[in-house]
Amino acid sequence: MMCVDLACILALKCITVVTKNSEKLIRGLALRKNRKKTGLFIAEGLKLVTDFVSAGVEVDIIYHVGPIPEKLMGDRTVEVSESDMKRITFLETSSPVLAVFHQRKEDLKSFIDAPIILLLDRVQDPGNLGTLLRTALWYGVEHIALVSGTADVWSPKVVQASMSALAHVKVVLLEEQEWLSFATQNKFELVIADMNGTPAKSFEWSRKQILVMGNEGHGASDMLKSSGRKITLPGDSSKMESLNVAVSGATLLYEYASSRRF
Question: Lower CB count within 10 Å: N or C terminus of the chain?
Answer without folding.
Answer: N
